[in-house]
Design a protein that fits this description.
- The complex is a heterodimer of chains A (304) and B (20).
- Chain A is mainly alpha-helical and 304 residues long.
- Chain A is built from 13 helices and four strands.
- In chain A, helix 6 crosses helix 12, helix 9 packs antiparallel against helix 12 and helix 10 runs antiparallel to helix 11.
- Chain A is globular.
- Classes of the chains: A mainly alpha (304), B mainly alpha (20).
- At the A-B interface, helix 5, helix 6 and helix 13 of A face helix 1 of B.
Chain lengths: 304, 20
């Protein structure tokens, strides 16, 4: 009976995951491997393609007639960042006004990323509320768990969208190359590289969406976040989800040695990535005079 | 509570849209 309960919990969290997160790993991997029919993503690999694709960033549906002519063929081998033609990127620009508009374009792109992140926080919040017992916790503790867990969750959610050459954005409709992100001005260029390094390693664990759902719940239910008022019920909830995750991994990945232990180790790496990320955002606030941080993200990052 | 106003809103309003 206990195993049946743990399986029911896994199913429940998987359903919530599918309900609240618009781009699943299954769909993302199909896009990245070129197996989703004719719908290759629009590729952003330099300033010119960013300018062309800018209007579609964060659109859930790119208008087909506008999208298609500009789509750079991803090729049968899937989406990669190579062989995409001459580099017209920021490094090639010498004109001062061109440089100025590139700077503004980068800042606008950063603001789009912030909007999507804020929407992501909303999605994660809805997912958290679906974890059995979560909404019965002290409301202040719910806030604390989200404040400390949500960036970790968003980083994990990014991994399935990435390969070594780039990442899907805009609900899977745009592929942005890693090289292009690295070519942006400091500190923008430093923001994504640690996430790529983490994701490429994380993806070798080959979790599927049902495993991911449980892992995200485990992260959210961390009883060691600073300022929690009532730790015990959180730890009890996490314990149950951990059991469910352990059973799920045994059934779903019978040949993967020590997968459960390997996954738990990733939680330590994640904390360092979030610390570095918040540090970069604080740096940005000092260096970019025109930057305004989204109020929800400000709330989350303040005193983190 | 004031410090995390939007998070509180997100947690408490399950159906009403929150202005993000």
């Amino acid at each position: 009976p206990e195993a049946a309960d743990l399986r029911a919990l896994a199913r429940h969290l998987y359903e919530a995951y599918l309900k609240y997160f618009p781009l699943t790993k299954a769909k993302a991997r199909a896009i990245l491997s070129g197996k989703n029919g004719d719908n290759a993503p629009f590729v952003i690999h330099d300033m010119k393609s960013l300018m062309e694709g800018e209007q579609f960033i964060n659109c859930r549906q790119i208008p087909i007639q506008e999208h298609q002519p500009q789509t750079l063929s991803a090729g049968l081998g899937g989406v990669t960042g190579v062989h995409l033609g001459p580099d017209c990127g920021i490094l090639g620009m010498t004109n001062i006004s061109e440089q100025g508009s590139a700077d503004a374009l980068e800042l606008r792109f950063f603001h789009s990323c912030q909007s999507r992140s804020a929407e992501g926080v909303r999605e994660v919040t809805e997912f958290a509320k679906s974890i059995p017992g979560f909404i019965n916790l002290d409301l202040n503790d719910q806030v604390t768990l989200l404040k400390y867990g949500v960036i970790e969750v968003l980083i994990i959610m990014m991994a399935p969208l990435m390969n070594k050459d780039g990442t899907l954005i805009s609900y899977g409709q745009i592929f942005m190359t890693r090289e292009f992100l690295k070519s942006l001005r400091k500190p923008f260029c430093q923001m994504m590289e640690p996430k790529f390094e983490f994701s490429v390693k994380f993806n070798t664990l080959e979790l599927d969406d049902s495993d991911m759902a449980l892992f995200l719940a485990v992260i959210i239910l961390s009883g060691d976040r600073p300022g929690l008022l009532n730790v015990k019920p959180i730890e009890q909830l996490q314990e149950t989800v951990l059991h469910s995750l352990e059973l799920q991994l045994k059934l779903n990945h019978p040949d993967s040695v020590q997968l459960f232990a390997k996954l738990l180790q990733k939680m330590t790496d994640l904390r360092q990535i979030v610390t570095d990320h918040v540090h970069l955002i604080q740096l940005l606030k000092k260096t970019e005079v025109d930057m305004c941080l989204h109020p929800l993200l400000q709330e989350i990052m303040k005193d983190l | 509570k004031e410090k995390h106003k939007i998070l509180h809103q997100l947690l408490q309003n399950s159906t009403s849209p929150v202005d993000l």
